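ok, trying the design again with the full structure, not the truncated one.
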């Protein structure tokens, strides 16, 4: 199980990867700076992958600086896209914090770049381990793959296609930390506004066609207006920052609501919303958006102002009275026995 760090791609890196211009580059260097994945260098291809290797990889890597390297091979996958070698370089004398940060962020970066594009990956602690010869030794150490039957080839392609579907990125999107589905930049921007208090309501739609999370509505609303925001025919995620009084204090509490009208919604849509919910909540936590209460509803009338208040501050029910054993039936006064 990988540890999520909350590190996200910088706007420059996200734009670069979305533009597809990186396919013409041979070597891409990425580092972690200011809690973001930053594009440091991108070097174009001049020859074949072997002649380009050392004059690109070995030049852009510094002895004492951790980094990630994506190196484009000449080999292409069945869909016509290039395969890449992914290298994680963390020097032995790097601080413990850097070692943990780069190790924990590796999976996030691979997902952003596209897991299905990575043919080989390895970790290095010495600069010499990044040379072309070291790469060839690494490939040899893995051994040659045994010939496959046609059925085995078909199965391998199915698995690869499944991985591509899981890791696909929209050209106009970046990925939320800890979330498998991509989120549009518009949604990410408004999540930040919501976090800072500029708006108090967001409605998020999961687009089953593009398989991404989109901002559907954002506003400043009163709690009494929330029921009207719930669609009657489609599922949605809702975030509402509820301003209220409790025990003499003025509070702001974020509630998460998953609305789903019921079985009139297609099965695929229901399943996608349901299975994505936990990842989305984890992503909000990584963005320091604290959820005070969660609820699943089927219609807007289930989230009236009194319901929201009860979600955040459940009433303390009076404890049950203790059972008192009834007295035995009276037999009259005590008799004297002679």
């Amino acid at each position: 199980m990988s540890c999520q760090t909350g590190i996200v791609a910088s706007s420059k890196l996200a734009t670069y990867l979305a533009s597809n211009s990186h396919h013409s580059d041979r070597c891409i260097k990425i580092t972690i700076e200011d809690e973001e994945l930053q594009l440091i260098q991108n070097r174009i291809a001049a020859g074949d992958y072997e002649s380009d290797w050392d004059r690109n990889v070995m030049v852009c890597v510094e002895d004492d600086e951790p980094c990630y390297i994506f190196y484009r091979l000449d080999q292409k996958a069945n869909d016509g896209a290039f395969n890449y070698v992914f290298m994680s370089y963390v020097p032995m004398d790097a601080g413990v914090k850097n070692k943990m940060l780069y190790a924990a962020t590796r999976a996030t970066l691979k997902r952003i770049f596209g897991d299905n594009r990575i043919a080989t990956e390895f970790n290095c602690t010495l600069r010499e381990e990044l040379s072309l010869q070291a790469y060839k030794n690494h490939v040899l150490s893995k051994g040659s793959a045994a010939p496959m039957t046609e059925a085995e080839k078909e199965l391998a392609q199915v698995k690869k296609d499944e991985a591509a579907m899981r890791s696909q990125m929209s050209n106009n999107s970046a990925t939320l930390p800890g979330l498998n589905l991509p989120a549009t930049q518009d949604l990410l921007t408004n999540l930040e506004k919501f976090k800072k208090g500029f708006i108090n309501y967001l409605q998020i739609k999961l687009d089953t066609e593009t398989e991404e999370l989109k901002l559907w509505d954002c506003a400043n609303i009163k709690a009494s207006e929330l029921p009207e925001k719930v669609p009657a025919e489609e599922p949605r995620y809702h975030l509402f920052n509820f301003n209220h009084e409790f025990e003499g204090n003025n509070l702001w509490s974020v509630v998460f609501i998953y609305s789903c009208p019921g079985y009139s919604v297609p099965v695929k849509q229901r399943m996608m919303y349901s299975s994505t919910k936990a990842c989305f909540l984890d992503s909000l936590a990584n963005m320091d958006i604290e959820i005070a209460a969660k609820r699943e509803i089927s219609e807007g009338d289930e989230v009236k102002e009194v319901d929201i208040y009860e979600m955040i501050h459940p009433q303390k029910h009076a404890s049950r009275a203790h059972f008192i054993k009834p007295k035995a039936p009276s037999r009259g006064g005590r008799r004297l026995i002679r």
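Keeping the full-length input from now on. DSSP finds nine helices and 13 strands in the chain.
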